[in-house]
């Protein structure tokens, strides 16, 4: 094999690997809504790294089991009992080796007497890590898109190891 062919093959392999990573991350994020709307604790847990966290305002949930238990929160049970759908947009993904950051928008629709209404519309930052089992969520931060700077910052700071929401360096 000549050098040009070897180089083209190397670039093609790298591109296929990148596309595989992007697809896996998109599938991971897409799995979140169906998991929480069906009260699937195991499905939610499978998305997070063992020490992963989820910060949706207030005290962050830390550890895979704590994140999975969010389906048992009274507010979440009320959503599901009324009829809910967690809808997430396609993420913008930045890859950096075995780490990645994805940002997207999410809405929680809840059924009421008039139909479905958007109860929450939020910006999301997903810090992801490649594990032996595939990509997992190391940290998710969710902020209401209520005009606040914190929500806008989630969209702007989207590279691994950039300053995060609280001013701390992301891991």
Task: Please tell me about this protein's structure.
The chain has 171 residues and is of the alpha+beta class. The protein is 36% helix and 36% strand. The protein contains 5 helices and 7 strands. Strands 1, 2, 3, 4, 5, 6 and 7 form a 7-stranded mixed beta sheet that branches. The chain starts with a helix and ends in a 15-residue tail after the last helix.
Overview in brief:
It contains 5 helices and 7 strands; from the N terminus they run H-H-E-E-H-H-E-E-E-E-E-H. With 171 residues, the chain is α+β, with helices and mostly antiparallel strands. A hairpin with a 2-residue loop joins strand 5 and strand 6.
Helix and strand sequence: HHEEHHEEEEEH
- State the major sheet: 7 strands, mixed
Discrete helix count: 5
CATH top level label = Alpha Beta
- Share of β-strand residues: 35-45%
What is the alpha-carbon Rg in Å? 18 Å
Describe the structure using short key phrases.
171 residues, alpha+beta, Nuclear Transport Factor 2, Chain: A
Q: Topology, please?
A:
Blueprint (H helix, E strand, L loop, with lengths): L2 H35 L3 H5 L2 E8 L5 E2 L1 H5 L5 H9 L1 E5 L3 E5 L2 E14 L2 E17 L2 E11 L4 H8 L15
Parallel strand pairs: 1-7
Antiparallel strand pairs: 1-2, 3-5, 4-5, 5-6, 6-7
């Amino acid at each position: 094999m000549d050098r040009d062919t070897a180089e083209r093959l190397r670039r093609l392999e790298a591109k296929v690997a990148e596309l595989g990573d992007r697809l896996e991350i998109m599938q991971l994020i897409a799995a979140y809504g169906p998991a929480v709307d069906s009260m699937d604790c195991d499905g939610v847990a499978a998305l997070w790294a063992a020490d992963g966290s989820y910060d949706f305002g207030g005290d962050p949930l830390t550890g895979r089991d704590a994140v999975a238990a969010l389906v048992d929160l009274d507010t979440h049970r009320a959503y599901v009992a009324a009829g809910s759908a967690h809808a997430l947009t396609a993420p913008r993904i930045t890859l950096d080796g075995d780490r990645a950051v994805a940002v997207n928008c999410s809405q929680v629709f809840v059924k009421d007497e008039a139909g479905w209404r958007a109860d929450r519309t939020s910006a999301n930052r997903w810090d992801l890590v490649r594990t032996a089992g595939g990509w997992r969520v190391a940290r998710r931060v969710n902020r209401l898109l209520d005009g606040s700077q914190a929500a806008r910052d989630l969209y702007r700071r989207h590279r691994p190891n950039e300053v995060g929401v609280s001013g701390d360096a992301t891991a």
